[in-house]
Amino acid sequence: MKSTAAGFMYRFLPCAGLLAIGLMLGSSGCQKKAPSAADTTSPAKAPASSTPVAQSKEEDKVVATVNGTDIMASQVQRRIDVRYKPTLARLAQQSPQLAAQQEKLLRQNIVNDLVTETLLEEQVKQAGVQVTEEELTAEMTKQLAAQQPPMTVEQYQKIVEAQGGDFQAMKGFLMQSMRYHKLLESKFASNLAVTDADAKKYYDENAKEFQVPEQVRASHILISTKPTDPNGDPNQAKVQAKQKAEELLKKAKDGADFAALAKENSSCPSAAQGGDLGTFPRGQMVKPFEDAAFAMKVGQISDLVETQFGYHIIKLTEHQDPNQVAFDKAKTGIVDQLTQRKRQEAITQYVQSLRQAAKISVTSTYTPEMPEPVQPKIVTPADANNKK
């Protein structure tokens, strides 16, 4: 009982999760980015294992009952089609067997969610909780503006619909989630306070989380040794690359604008930023590059550094010694995460109590095996002490 309640609430928090599901329709893997324009031109087909949304009465069946309210198989299918249809379609093209396994797991989880949602709907109706269209639009606008890159509601709608999703249904799910959020916040807001003392205690007991390793910031110019002609002589290409790199190195050391040289000559994507690679610790760059960068002084320009990518000219622009993020810098993030943790625990207990008091029956096929939620980790900015 505890794991099913906790599993739902972990997916539920925060209420922004539904938009994240929608954005996932156009992307793959773990990248946190919005779908590209190219993704919107080719709607995905439904996997062969998916049944039509509009099921006949003969096909539809009860998969669970909550306090006398039936949850139907068509509701489960509708949720799959709205949230996961394009993703399952792409997965089915790669591995039909894996897609079928994922769809089965999704059905189990969705039935579990629908059970909890039915219980919450009872409480929402009793409390008279409402969410207006204006509130919904404002929440969507806020969430989409926080995406990388930011999006408007209209752009999001085009992406969802181009991928075969139902935008109006997505809005309905988000509004439903917002109603639950309002209900739960009204019940627990007064019990979620985290004091400065709580934050300081966490800070002191988890000091390692706030340690920042030695870091440097560097720019570079990369001259690739890869032949531009597939049939070209790689040895000749390497000789030519070194000659070009040596000429650029002389210009850089003679005082030429390093960023301009990088923009005009570097084959690294960082050329667009004048060669700036940002701040990085040890272990992030290839060894020859790292060794050179960490041995330099700020403002110094290296000799040629050869790696498997080609010849690099490095300019060190910043060096940060190992340090500890100050409590004042970390406090806001600690308070936010501890508040989120308290909220998650309170809501999980509340949903568990609703389940224990309810009369619930679920078809054995749809009984989920839910993992315990993972506690959120407090993340500290690597350069927090250097920000003003």
Structural overview:
With 388 residues, the chain is an alpha+beta fold. The protein has 2 domains: 2-196 and 328-368, Porin chaperone SurA, peptide-binding domain (Triger factor/SurA peptide-binding fold); 214-321, Chitinase A, domain 3, CATH 3.10.50.40. It contains 13 helices and 9 strands. The protein has helices at residues 2-12, 17-24, 73-83, 85-94, 96-127, 133-145, 153-162, 167-188, 196-205, 234-253, 258-265, 287-295, 327-357, and strands at 62-66, 69-72, 211-212, 215-224, 276-281, 305-307, 310-320, 323-324, 360-362. The strands form 3 sheets. A 4-stranded antiparallel β-sheet has the order 5-4-7-6, with helices on both faces. A 3-stranded antiparallel β-sheet has the order 2-1-9. α2 runs antiparallel to α8 and α4 packs antiparallel against α5. The chain is elongated.
Topology:
Layout: H1 2-12, H2 17-24, E1 62-66, E2 69-72, H3 73-83, H4 85-94, H5 96-127, H6 133-145, H7 153-162, H8 167-188, H9 196-205, E3 211-212, E4 215-224, H10 234-253, H11 258-265, E5 276-281, H12 287-295, E6 305-307, E7 310-320, E8 323-324, H13 327-357, E9 360-362
Antiparallel strand pairs: 1-2, 1-9, 3-8, 4-5, 4-7, 6-7
Helix pairs in contact: 1-13, 2-8, 3-5, 4-5, 9-13
Poorly predicted residue ranges: 1-58, 370-388
Largest sheet properties: 4 strands, antiparallel
Beta-sheet strand percentage? 5-15%
Count of individual domains? 2
H/I helix tally: 13
* Strands side by side in the biggest sheet: 5-4-7-6
Euclidean distance between termini CA atoms: 47 Å
CATH architecture of the largest domain: Orthogonal Bundle
Task: Give the proportion of residues in helices.
Answer: 40-55%
Strand tally is 9
Report the CATH topology name of the largest domain. Answer: Triger factor/SurA peptide-binding fold
| Molecular shape | elongated
H-E string = HHEEHHHHHHHEEHHEHEEEHE
Give the C-level CATH assignment of the largest domain. Mainly Alpha
Structural class: alpha+beta
The radius of gyration computed from the alpha-carbon positions, rounded to a whole number of angstroms, is 27 Å
CATH superfamily of the largest domain: Porin chaperone SurA, peptide-binding domain
In round numbers, the mean pLDDT is 82
